[in-house]
Write a structure and sequence with these properties.
This protein is an alpha/beta fold. It has a single domain (2-217), classed as TIM Barrel (Alpha-Beta Barrel), CATH 3.20.20. The protein is 54% helix and 17% strand. It has helices spanning 10-19, 29-34, 40-50, 64-75, 89-100, 113-122, 131-136, 141-154, 171-180, 189-196, 199-217, and strands at 2-6, 24-26, 55-58, 81-86, 105-110, 126-130, 162-166, 184-187. The longest helix has 19 residues, at 199-217. The model has no long low-confidence stretch (mean pLDDT 97). Bound molecules: erythose-4-phosphate. Erythose-4-phosphate (E4P) binds at residues 6, 26, 28, 31, 108, 128, 130, 132-133, 166-167, 186.
């Protein structure tokens, strides 16, 4: 499983990129707005200069023609841009047109197996299943990820769409996504840092240092 960072915060992206464990970045309009930056193009270009991997940038249009126009523009910002398209009939229409043009897409706001199946058939490069938001609504979000992976696997000769476990809230979600066979988990920086930490590691590092100090002063 690969890990993407789910943020538009450039400092977090720079820090995470140094660890060598991040293969891409996902953003959305809310994440960009959180950074109080209105120039989406500048944000995405800056991210692309730090991370050499797929960078998802979302369209805001809702009608198919406008979505397609906007997606073409967004994909021209950098060679590693993947265009995020929200799930809807218009979104599917846009994804199928864009996939015929060779523009990579990420079907976002995917909450059901049916939506994922349609996205894959339309030619989405990725489908993003929103685990945390499904959990919040009383569903088992990770079960949906596992089932999408399983369905796509039945048709692996035809379906090349990769499954992103999105809306990740804590480190256990990441482990569950890996167990479910998700191709990618896109995670907030805070979750990445939680994954790094373990109290026994901290205690172990302290103990090694103390023991060495004792013997080196003897
Ligand atoms: C995915 O690509 C989305 O940006 C993100 O995972 C949504 O997460 P949230 O439910 O925490 O907003």
């Amino acid at each position: 499983m690969r890990i993407f960072l789910d943020t538009a915060n450039i400092d977090e992206i720079r820090q995470a990129a140094k660890l060598g464990v991040i293969s891409g970045v996902t953003t959305n309009p809310s994440l960009v707005a959180k950074e109080k930056r209105a120039d989406m193009k500048a944000v995405i270009r800056e991210i692309s200069s730090v991370v050499d991997g797929p960078i998802s940038a979302e369209v805001l249009s809702l009608e198919p023609e406008a979505m397609i126009r906007e997606a073409r523009e967004v994909s021209s910002w950098s060679p590693n841009v993947v265009v995020k398209i929200p799930m809807s009939a218009s979104g599917l229409e846009a994804i199928s047109a864009l996939s015929r043009e060779g523009i990579r897409t990420n079907l976002t706001l995917c909450f059901s197996l049916n939506q994922a199946i349609l996205g894959a058939i339309a030619g989405a490069t990725y489908v993003s299943a929103f685990v945390g938001r499904l959990d919040d609504a009383g569903h088992d979000g990770m079960q949906i990820v596992a089932e999408i992976v399983n369905i796509f696997d039945h048709y692996k000769d035809r379906i090349k769409t990769q499954v992103i476990a999105a809306s990740i809230r804590h480190p256990l979600h990441v482990v569950a996504a890996a167990k479910a066979g998700a191709h990618i988990a896109t995670i907030p920086y805070s979750v990445l840092m939680q994954m790094v930490k373990h109290p026994l590691t901290d205690i172990g590092i302290c103990r090694f240092a103390e023991d060495w100090q004792r013997i080196s002063k003897a």
